[in-house]
Amino acid sequence: MTSTTEHRDVVIVGGGHNALVAATLLARAGLAVAVLERLEHVGGAAVSAQAFPGLEARLSRYSYLVSLFPDRLREELGLRLELRSRDTASYSPYVRDDGSPDGLLVETVVGDPTRESFRRLTGGDDELVAWERFYADVEGLAAAVAPTLLGPLPSVRDVRAGIDPATWRDLVERPLGEAIERRFTDDLVRGVVATDALIGTFASLHEPSLSQNRCFLYHLVGNGTGEWRVPVGGMGAVTGELERVAREAGAEIVTGTPVETVSAGEDAVLVTSGDRTWRAAHVLSGVAPAVLADLLGSPVDTRPEGSQLKVNLLLSRLPRLRSGLDPQVAFAGTLHLGESYTELETAHAEASAGRLPTRAAGEVYCHTLTDRSILGPELAATEAQTLTYFGLHTPPATLGDAPAAEEAYARVVAAIEEHLAEPLSPLVLGVEVKTPSDIETALAMPGGHIFHGDLAWPWLEEGEPADTSATRWGVATAHPRVLFCGSGARRGGAVSGLGGHAAAAALVEQLGLGDLDLS
Question: Are 115 and 421 contacting, i.e. CB atoms less than 8 angstroms apart?
Fold first, then answer.
């Protein structure tokens, strides 16, 4: 077999959404760019798929909503993408002390229904006042951080200078659980606040590493508001637009090409796949840091592990709720299940001991209430709806085999049916269950960790060096010619494009080709 060597200015390993962002910006800067993707399509976790054979419904299979992707970056790339807001932020069903069903409704813009809902739960207005004060403080932090995300990493001193010291202590310096317990009294309200600290992160609210605090920040910093919006057409529409602008810029996208080795030298980097070799001045890594380490021949000792159970459902219609609330209101935002503060901490303790949590803790989202374009004409003409469930505290040790996954799904159904006025199963047209191991197999994310590893603060700590373009932008690896451009970047995690933009900005800056600082 004859080996060929191809020459490019930049080779990007992995074709996720961040890779496409970087490819577009670098190609527009005049560089010859090749994106190498092992699958037959690009997008990574930001894809839509017909998950149920014979049923024309293209679900956002792994990633669902858009928040962290800056509007400024979207405009710069020229993405023709519609993101829709939702009137309902969340609904958390519960059973009152007298045994009657009810639920905590939180609107995106707080109105009378939200106020009445808090009063029924807590007997007064104090908890809602605490809620509004807390999120005003969060908004202050988000307003300071969001504008920095498209520029070089700011110093922690500069960020901290613009934040109320008490807010900084609560959200950045001390375990988030302390602030939640001090500032709220109701167990359910505490849990609703806490969930944003746990999506994609396996931690107690009192975890000393503060991984939960960093997760919380990333969930609430998007565009300075933290609003999560629905991409019309599903996450596949996001990837489709990113692929379009990348190709129009002149980037080469090569699918079905699993990279086998990356050899970084002083003058160039060699990337191999089968009998093909690419020689590039620079390589960007859109794969997880642990995967890059394998490709470089220096495997890491500790690999990340995810902790989420994902369930995709297609229903003939939305189920009726015991509380009597219109399902089109309850399911329009995030529907919380088993996510009171006590239940969350109990589930974490059980999972830490290697046991599947007794009560499923997670949340449900209905894409089709906001956007029915993901359904084929026949389904769209009916009452059919999609539901996606994101389960917390289910690391691989709790889902070791098929029976364990089946039991986990049964517990999810039980958690949903606890609040329904009818059984769920007769309404199910299709179901798909994805464990962390399934996600690793499908997407090559080590341990199925959706962030590729623990999130980092989006700033430079005191004394942290920023003497190169790569360190200034948070994309440095141990090899000067290899940069992170995916979730492994300093500001990686979620569908944001931030890793791809930062890598492109660092390389353009280093090569003297212009300035991609969009802050």
Answer: no
Structure tokens at 506: 């660092």
How far is Cα 503 from Cα 489, in angstroms, rounded to an integer?
Answer: 8
- HEC profile of 280-347: EEEEEECCCHHHHHHHCCCCCCCCCCCCCEEEEEEECCCCCECCCCCHHHHCCCEEEECCCHHHHHHH
Bridging pattern class, strands 334-337 and 88-95: parallel
Phi, psi at residue 218, to the nearest 5°?
-65, -30
pLDDT tens-digit series, residues 257-314: 999 999 999 999 999 999 999 999 999 999 999 999 999 999 999 999 999 999 999 9
Structure tokens at 422: 């009818």
Q: What is the mean pLDDT of residues 363-378?
A: 97
In a domain, 51, yes or no: no
Domain encompassing residue 21: 4-46+67-81+231-303+448-511
In this structure, which amino acid lies at residue 122? T
Look up residue 483 and give its two tokens.
């940069």
Q: pLDDT value at position 2?
A: 58
Which residue type does 37 have?
E
Both 283 and 366 in one domain: the answer is: no
Q: Are residues 323 and 429 in the same domain?
A: yes
Task: Give backbone dihedrals phi and psi of 42, rounded to 5 degrees, phi first.
Answer: -95, 175
CA distance 68 to 359: 30
Residue 402 carries which DSSP code? H
Cβ neighbors of 426 (< 8 A, separation 6 or more) are none
Number of separate domains in the chain? 3
pLDDT single digits (tens) 211-241: 999 999 999 999 999 999 999 999 999 999 9
Tell me the CA end-to-end span of the chain in Å, nearest whole number: 49
Query: Is the CA virtual torsion 8, 12, 16, 20 positive or negative?
Result: negative
| Residue 498 CB contacts under 8 Å (≥ 6 apart), including other chains | 18, 68, 70, 73, 149, 150, 489, 491, 492
